[in-house]
Amino acid sequence: MEMEYKDPSKRGRWIVLLGVVLAVAAGAAAFYLINQAQQQAGQSGLKYTTAVVATRAIPARKPIEVDDVAVRSDIPLDGTNAEGIVTDPAQVVGRILAVDVRPGQLVTVNLLASATAGGQFSILRPDETVAPDSEAWRAVSLTVPDERAVGGMLGPNMTVDVFVTATVNVPQTLIEQGRYYTDQSTKITYQDMLILARQGTSYIVKATLPVAEEITHLLAAGNAQFSFVLRPDADTRVLDLSALGATTNRIVERYGLPIPETFPAGGGPISTPPPIPEITPAPSPTESGSPAPSAAPSTVP
Q: Where is the domain boundary, 111, 129, 147?
């Protein structure tokens, strides 16, 4: 009985061919699925846009600087951000924000407090509105040198207390009574005032209408000086100031400063100190530069 011979190489070729066919089919299926997904994404309306975003945290009422913003071109566009998008950083640089902006957040026109670039600022906070019974807020300027403004380290969005130092003129009839005299008096006058903007030593602060009127009068009178002290951000208390106020005599009494006395006592003559005893001069050197001998050597007979 004869055995039928089968060539194994033919079977191997069929297996390889089948593998190639399956690989091509898998690639075609993957291409088809990817193409379908892209078409479905396009049909769903998903679009991307270019917009200006914040590169770092930007506080409210601070002018936007060039390094504060950048342009991104992969922003998904939807109903929440379709309005007010800015595509050119030049449109927002120099503008003032009404609210704090986080890193990566879109900088849209509705977040801006000023309509144009420059030194503009917002008097009202984002949560403040003008109503018939609302406070009448105003912006008023004060000139305060650096030595009376925390070394010039103050800036927009900081809160300060304001000291007023004024010259108090006492009538001559009271001066003659021996108790009062004309001098300067200092007191903390305005509390928790917000700095809106600053230009050198000129500060623009937020004040109620009556306070703005008082400041304007003191500036026009010319006998008052203003000083700023910085408040902690968390301290918004309004303190009772009735017991405060400083004059030179109050400081002398409170801290026990020594009172200068007339010298000499009683207005008498000043005693003349005794003269300093005369000092015997040292011997002068000889012409050769060596000291002269004190005496000639003695000879022994």
A: 111
Q: What is the pLDDT of residue 275?
A: 77
Total count of residues recorded for the chain: 301
Take residue 232 and report the two structure tokens written for it.
């902690």
Segment 31-65, tens digit of pLDDT: 777 776 666 655 455 677 888 999 999 887 777 88
Domain, as residue range, for 143: 137-255
Residue 124 within any structural domain of the chain: no
Q: Domain count of the chain?
A: 2
- The pLDDT of 197-206, averaged and rounded, is 92
Task: Please tell me the predicted confidence (pLDDT) of residue 263.
Answer: 73
> Where does a domain end: 255, 274, 294?
255
Q: How far apart are CA 194 and CA 225, in angstroms?
A: 19
- In whole angstroms, how far apart are CA 179 and each of 249, 251, 279? 11, 16, 55
pTM: predicted TM-score of the whole model, two decimal places? 0.56
Q: In degrees rounded to 5, what are phi and psi of residue 240?
A: -80, 120
Residue 159 domain-assigned? yes
Element (H, E) at 252: helix 248-255
More confident residue, 11 or 77: 77
Cα separation, 265 vs 206, whole angstroms: 55
Q: Whose structure tokens read 């071109």? A: 73
- The C-alpha atoms of residue 143 and residue 220 are separated, in whole angstroms, by 12
Residue 34 lies in a domain: no
Nearest CA to 292 among 301, 300, 284? Answer: 284
Domain membership flag for residue 126: no
145 and 226 inside one domain: yes
Which residues lie closer than 8 Å to 298 by C-beta, 6 or more apart? none
Measured between alpha carbons, how far is 296 from 298 in angstroms, rounded to an integer?
Answer: 6
Beta strands in the chain (DSSP E): 47-54, 69-77, 137-143, 159-168, 183-199, 202-208, 224-230
